[in-house]
Design brief:
The chain has a 5-stranded parallel sheet with strand order 2-1-3-4-5, sandwiched between helices. A 5-stranded parallel sheet has the order 9-10-13-8-14. 29% of the residues are buried. The protein is globular, with a radius of gyration of 31 Å. α10 (241-253) packs across α12. The protein has 488 residues and is an alpha/beta fold. β1, α1 (11-22) and β2 form a beta-alpha-beta unit. The longest helix has 18 residues, at 101-118. It has helices at 11-22, 34-38, 61-66, 80-88, 101-118, 140-152, 169-178, 200-205, 222-225, 241-253, 279-284, 290-296, 312-327, 337-345, 351-365, 373-376, 401-410, 414-425, 431-438, 442-452, 467-476; strands at 3-7, 27-31, 47-51, 71-75, 93-96, 124-126, 132-134, 159-162, 187-191, 230-234, 255-256, 265-266, 270-275, 299-302, 334-335, 370-371.
Length: 488
């Protein structure tokens, strides 16, 4: 049950607010001033609601004292100035008195929900080799993944993991299994794309001796091998339709039947499926059963691509680099500043798998104690969008022609291309459109503008002249006459 501290010098308001919150299952404590509140264990609260104007220190003084506990400021002066000042000092939000009860409760619930999402620790995982590792990443998107894992794992329901190739879907499946009630039972991992279509039914459901040519002995399927535990089907979008029908029977009735057998067996298996494809779209084209999709999509976890994980890429890179150095016995290697910047800016279409390969190359090719951008082998043409995908580009003023312009553009470095693209299109595009075309966030666009010294173009209106000043200007401006024999 969340604990909330109310800091308010007016006893009537304080008690009324306490009753309101307690009716909605919050545990509430009170204080009449910032000094009185500071005598309590502030770290033990989930939220502090404080009046702005208090006797002695203002309510904003609790922001630093209680960090990282969020502080919601109340003020009877519903001016933007006081609200902005409170937010600048680190308040999570503000409400104006007299406040609407429903609005206040909604604000409190939203703050506590966001706080709980940020406090979910990365799960520990034992990989296939038996070594333990922790999922890496602290961005908001990964915090949501951690929260969904911790809530989904004990529920013993079917889970569908979505994400691009190389985002770590198998790691999530292992984390769910190891935090579930089936942790001591086996986890069977199957890559549906790696098994030939003619063999996948036999691999999953088993077969009897003589069931088909080459079946010289009976075989237990992987579904039955996972009985009591978890079955992880990676790339389930590649599963043939016949195997999909058999899998649907497992999910609906908990029954399997080996190929060539008339005997039905019961199994108790938790299914976790993963795919980088749109299963709903595949169902419309008949490539995936819609009823199976609905059976799979009980709980859904979506993994963010690496390009949307902000500074997580550098944290992951440092850990992967350390492992690569140990494998190749090259201790002491570090990424140069330029290499780190390239890793931060690259869009990583192959995600963590591509990052790991790039660092492996860097460790092998580096000649000194630093890994430089050339050692990573990142192709500059992959991450950057072509200007033709956005607004139409203007031909070079020098008259070099379209072909010359394209050749020069291909020779640009990433930073030169960024500068060229922004300067050429910032008059026609907003900051959001520029960031989308470049495949980066608005924050990253702003940071690179600052680093490269490219200010945002400000469209300032021309100063308006009075009628008298305009007439005076016209009168004082000499008129230019052009004779017909002058070429213009």
């Amino acid at each position: 049950m969340p604990r909330i501290l109310i800091v308010e010098d007016e006893a009537i308001i304080r008690s009324a607010l306490k009753r309101l919150l307690e009716r909605h299952d919050y545990t509430v404590s009170e204080a009449g001033s910032a000094e009185e509140a500071s005598q309590l264990e502030l770290a033990g609260f989930d939220l502090i609601i404080s009046d702005l104007r208090l006797p002695g220190e203002p309510g904003t003084s609790l922001i630093a004292a209680a960090a990282p506990v969020p502080v919601l400021i109340m003020t009877s002066y519903a001016s933007m100035r006081s609200a902005v000042e409170a937010l600048k000092q680190g308040a999570v939000d503000y409400v104006a008195k007299p406040f609407d009860h429903a609005e206040l409760l909604e604000t409190v619930e939203r703050i506590l929900h966001k706080q709980s999402m940020q406090q979910s620790p990365p799960p520990d995982i034992t990989d296939a080799g038996g070594s333990r590792q922790t999922m890496i990443g602290n961005c908001v998107a990964m915090q949501q993944v951690y929260t969904r894992i911790s809530k989904t794992a004990p529920a013993d329901v079917t889970v569908l993991i979505l994400g691009e190739s190389g985002t770590g879907k198998e790691l999530v499946a292992r984390a769910i299994h190891q935090q579930s009630k089936r942790a001591k039972a086996p986890l069977i991992c199957v890559n549906c794309a790696a098994i030939p279509e003619t063999l996948i039914e036999s691999e999953l459901f088993g077969h009897e001796k003589g069931a088909f040519t080459g079946a010289s002995a009976a075989r237990t399927g992987l579904v039955e091998a996972a009985d009591g535990g978890t079955l992880f089907l990676d790339e389930i979008g590649e599963l043939p339709l016949d195997a999909q029908a058999r899998l649907l029977r497992v999910l609906q009735e908990g029954e399997i039947r080996k190929i060539g057998s008339v005997e039905t067996r019961h199994v108790n298996v938790r299914l976790i499926a993963a795919t980088h494809r749109d299963l709903r779209a595949l169902s419309k084209t008949g490539e995936f059963r819609l009823d199976l999709y609905y059976r799979l999509n009980v709980m859904q976890i979506e993994l963010p691509p690496l390009r949307e994980r902000e500074d997580d890429v550098l944290e992951i890179a440092d850990i992967l680099l350390d492992k690569a150095c140990k494998r190749h016995e090259r201790t002491g290697l570090r990424l140069s500043r330029a290499a780190r910047q390239d890793l931060r800016d690259y869009p990583w279409p192959g995600n963590v798998r591509e990052l790991e390969n790039a660092l492996e190359r860097g460790v092998i090719l580096a000649e000194g104690h630093l890994i430089h951008p050339d050692d990573l082998g990142l192709a500059p043409t992959t991450p950057r969008p072509h200007p033709s995908s956005g607004a139409s580009s203007t031909p070079a003023a020098s008259g070099g022609g379209d072909k010359s312009a394209e050749e020069n553009e291909d020779d640009l470095s990433l930073e030169d291309y960024f500068q060229h693209f922004v300067l050429e299109h910032q008059d026609q595009m907003s900051e959001t459109e520029l960031a989308q075309k470049l495949g980066i966030s608005r924050k990253n666009l702003w940071e690179r503008r600052q680093r490269l010294g490219i200010p945002r173009k400000k469209n300032r209106p021309a100063p308006r002249l009075s009628t008298w000043a305009l007439l005076s200007t016209r009168a004082s401006t000499p008129r230019l006459r052009l004779s017909s024999n002058i070429l213009i």
